[in-house]
Amino acid sequence: MVAISPHSFRSRRPTSRSGVGLFVKLALALLSLFVLLHIYITKVTLNECNENHNESSLVFEDHAATVSSSNSKLQKIHEQLVNDPNRRKVDLPSAIQSAIACSTQQTPDPLTYFYEMYQASVLEENLRSQNAYQKGYTFKCGSNPNFKVPPPPTGMLINYYQAASVWCALELESIRLNRPANFLVWGLGNDSEFWKQATKGRVVFIEDNKQWFDMVKRDHPGLNQYLTSYSTVIDRDLALFQKGDIESINDLIRKNNQLLDPLHLQTEQWDVILVDAPNGCHSTNPGRFGPMFTSKKIVDEQGHGLIFVDDYQRDSERVLSDTILEGKGIGNKLISNSRHGGHRGGFGNKVAEWDRIHPSSKLYIEKFAMFSFGESDTEQMKMSIRNLDSQHSQEQQKEANVAQILSAGANDDVTVDQCRNVFKTQGQGGYGSLSPKQIKTMCASKGMYNSCEDLKEFTGLSDLEFNTRMQREGRFHFEGEHMFWNPQSRSELAWYYATSVDYLFANSVHVSNNLLEVFKEPSQGPVLDYSGGVGNNIIELAKAGIPCQYFGIGMMEYTFAEYRVRKYQLEHLVSFIRPWNSKTNWSFDPINGPLPRDGSLGGIVAIDVLEHIPDYQNVVKAMVESLRVGGIIVENTPFGSTVENGEEDLRVHVSDGGITMSEAMGESMKNIGKGKWQKVQK
Q1: pLDDT of 105-126, one tens digit each?
Q2: Higher per-residue pLDDT: 642 or 670
């Protein structure tokens, strides 16, 4: 793993053989110093975003001055800490050591950049120390709901989002091929033992640094590692691509696409390939021309393969991937992408692309891409990535938001405006930000009933203003809104939902749920849509002549749903219920307000709502009491993970509290399908 990312796949060697001692000393000095201040800074700065005081900025002024100190001062601090028997012992990843060298081409202040990278590293380690770093990471890969990635070696920082993708790819290829998948890794690291566990097939590591090669071989003698050399130079050879010099590029490919031949590895099948070496921080480094050319030749000849490219944010990796693997630009004129010399050829499909952007510097901490070729199971991989996305997003959001809040305090007094602007969430449910293409596709989906067009008319926003909010970026994401208000009680959580603006846009792309398959006759009404969002469900039912009721505490969504019912002239079939009325003595009551508890309802719809309610079983009990015998509840409830610290769960997606849906429904309800429950007795 090269260079600038503390979230790197592997803990890499320093960038060059000379100056290793200086890099290590600088890194260790900064690490020890910053860990001592980290807990205090986090607490002060997070309070600042809520209280708008200025103590945290004073702390960060001191901190910024420290990281900008001279090397000699850092050296003295390092010597003091080394001799302190009570210092915190932390195994600093060598990826952060090389960050100092790589930072010079990213920012004029390497020490400040190093601090930012370190800060994000410690935050991730702290936030996940009680989760994946001790227990491993479990998610749904393909049809396996409990696919597990083990914890990394002690002291290694692994980006589980990326690592799990590679492990899952090996699992899916093993199933498809009916044999253990083989794994080729360009690069060698201290965590190579971790990657060796990823498959029962053959795993090979190829390294070009002799010193590093010998050290890893000594410490990990069981690895299949091979030493190679590269003749390419980034500055010289990348210019050929930039100029579009087809003849010279093809000559470069011929000279650098057979790196496996002298290692006697060319006859083996390599089903999954990770391109993570050689170094590519500086223009004088070899770059990944050879590994990229050779990897493309491998998948050409065997007709399948998955290629992962790390450090995709750098010019050389991006240009090579886009041209050689995807066939963009001049790609179709190059020999490695044609049916040349018996190759099967063909371009790859970029299945996924992940990135992390540091909030203060706006620089990529890491960017990573995956390309699929031939017969490899792209659809299964996409589905698994969505599953992983959904499970991982909450941890990733916490890490990003905390880092951004801390960064806001590093430059000036933390103001409310700064706090508003720091949120760049990854989202919940696996979607995160939406691209314009995704929005267009979702808005055109069956079951939307023109909700996007209606919302644009309702708000009066321009195309640009509307699309910005629909894309859920920055402060326009509902989780960023939740993090900003940071509810501290159930009443504050309810008020967040009641006043949320971002949920109006997020829910506008929720399609109806094929309710006409369940409610087919008007006699099955009335049907209550509990927390009905923007009204797609009631519009579907009312258009079929089924009487229904809308309930929701979100003021914006309620008003918009009422607007749509009037627009489509469905008022005679739809009634609206507020969470306060004479029955509740005009007090806010989202249970007794809409739920009559008298057995009068023919159906209740609760799509993506119960997971937002602490002690949700109380609502379910009232729903059951409100149904007549034969009535049906339709629910979809993606609960959050279990909270183990005993604190009250006030997240966007709460856990089920240990009470299953079947237990909450009780004996009078029978499960008649996924998310469908029918009342069979009083």
Answers
A1: 333 344 444 444 444 444 444 4
A2: 670
Cα–Cα distance for residue pair 387/365, rounded to 1 Å: 23
pLDDT tens digits, one per residue of 18-66: 454 555 455 555 555 444 444 333 333 333 333 332 322 222 233 333 3
Residues 221-256 have pLDDT tens digits of: 899 999 999 999 998 999 999 888 999 999 999 999
Q: In this structure, which amino acid lies at residue 106?
A: Q
Is 61 part of any domain?
no
Which tens digits make up the pLDDT trace of 417-445? Answer: 443 443 333 333 333 567 788 888 888 88
CA 195, 196, 197, 200 torsion-angle sign: positive
Same domain, 163 and 246: yes
* The total number of structural domains that make up the chain: 2
Cα 156 to Cα 405: distance, rounded to the nearest angstrom: 26
Q: Tokens in use for 62?
A: 């001191």
Choose among 37, 139, 97, 61: nearest CA to 641. Answer: 139
Position of tokens 């409990």?
146
Instruction: Determine contact, residues 139/387, Cβ cutoff 8 Å.
Output: yes
Residues 493 and 356 in one domain: no
- pLDDT at position 568: 96
Residue 228: partners with Cβ closer than 8 Å, 6 or more residues away? 206, 207, 208, 259, 262, 263, 290
Beta-carbon contacts of residue 260 (< 8 Å; ≥ 6 apart): 266, 294, 298
Q: What is the pTM of this model?
A: 0.48
Query: Quick check: is 349 in a domain?
Result: yes
510 and 579 inside one domain: yes
Residue 563, pLDDT > 70, answer: yes
DSSP state of 428: S
How would residue 667 be classed by pLDDT, with cut points 50, 70 and 90? very high
Contact present, 339 and 345 (Cβ < 8 Å): yes
Q: Which domain covers residue 164, as residue numbers? A: 144-393
| CATH code, 571 | 3.40.50.150
Look at residue 510 and give its three-state secondary structure. Answer: coil
Kind and range of the H or E element at 678?
A: strand 676-679
Q: How far apart are CA 92 and CA 527, in angstroms?
A: 59
Residue 314 placed within a domain: yes
Asked if 469 and 338 sit in the same domain, the reply is no
Phi, psi of 344 (to 5 degrees): -75, -30
Alpha helices in 553-655 (DSSP H): 555-567, 617-626
What is the C-alpha separation between 326 and 336, in angstroms, rounded? 11
Q: Where are the alpha helices (DSSP H) in 363-499?
A: 378-411, 416-421, 436-443, 451-459, 463-470, 478-485, 490-499
In a domain, 412, yes or no: no
Paired tokens of 9: 């796949």
DSSP secondary-structure letter at 444? T
For 475, counting Cβ atoms within 10 Å of its Cβ (0-12 exposed, 13-18 middle, 19+ buried), the class is middle
Domain boundary among 370, 393, 416: 393
CA distance 585 to 593: 10
